[in-house]
Amino acid sequence: MIIYDKLYGEFVVDKVLEELIFSEPVQRLKGIHQGGASYLVNQKWNETRFDHSIGVMLLIRKLGGSLEEQIAGLLHDISHTAFSHVVDFVFENKEEDYHEKIFNSVVKNSEIPVILSKYDYNYEEILFDDSKWTLLEQPAPELCADRVDYSLRDMYVYGNISLEQVNRFLHDLIVFEGKMYLQNIEVAEWFVKIYYKEVIDFFLDPLNIYGYDMLAKTLKLSLEKNILNLNDFLGKDDDLLNKIKLSEDQELLGLLRKLNPNVQVKEDRENYDIYRKNKLRMIDPSIFKGGELIPASQLSERIRIMNTKAFEKATRGMYVRILSN
């Protein structure tokens, strides 16, 4: 099977990956938006968990990761519920890791164990301990395939970076002791800048905050009214919306109408309607230089300044005033 990705190019993938890609759990991710509620208030914010999962798999492959790690990369997000991280705000889960808490259960109750067994793989060994997959996951503030792909992908699709810039970054990546690092401090400065465009400017965009808040209220009320149940969240975004619409509950329909591309909001710390503080996400990639690993912030004043500003903004949170909805 040949796969083409807009960031990484064309690859031939193994049969086990092909079968997993066409499985129901992975195909479901085509209906799960990466930005949660974002696409409801801005139609161009429409990347999906499927795009990201394929991207993570291919980035691991591009960097020489094993087939097992590619499998783990492809499947790392299959437990994301409808609307991705919106569910964390529905259940007031400050760690924003609801999908991780249900991951084992989702895998066990899917066709994935059977597919992997067919190719002589033990699903528990591949999927239930990601500490062995050091390209896929690394603790912040280091680079990893998951963190790199969603930053590059969103920023490229939303027009903030070019393919030429993406390729320059990818060309600078090296693998040392199973982990990814950069070699050029200027490339590191570029990535830190676009990472904060993602996790600060995009995640904390007032319109994004509004969309998350309004949709979380709608979904929470739908649960309280028994129009939705927990199992519904294992479907697709549109499945939940359609179920709410079919209920003809006027209170819920009124809330859904407020999720539209014509909403007008702004940051206002004095006179605000919504306050939201997201999980703190910092980046300080190590640079491989002269056989040593050196945190980029030790080599770059620009990165130290960006980190300070990002930390301040993330810990302060976002105050949003609704002008019209």
Structural descriptors:
325 residues, mainly alpha, Hypothetical protein af1432, 2 domains, three-stranded antiparallel sheet, two-stranded antiparallel ribbon, 11% strand
Low-confidence stretches: none
CATH-defined superfamily of the largest domain: Hypothetical protein af1432
> Beta-strand level of the residues, as a percent range?
5-15%
Number of strands: 9
Q: What Rg is obtained from the alpha carbons, in whole angstroms?
A: 20 Å
CATH topology name of the largest domain: Hypothetical protein af1432
Q: What is the CATH-assigned architecture of the largest domain?
A: Orthogonal Bundle
Sequence of secondary-structure elements: EEHHHHHHHHHHHHEEHHHHEEEEHHE
Derived from helix and strand composition plus strand pairing, the structural class reads mainly alpha
Measured between the Cα atoms of the first and last residue, the distance is 46 Å
| Tally of individual domains | 2
Task: Work out the helicity level.
Answer: 40-55%
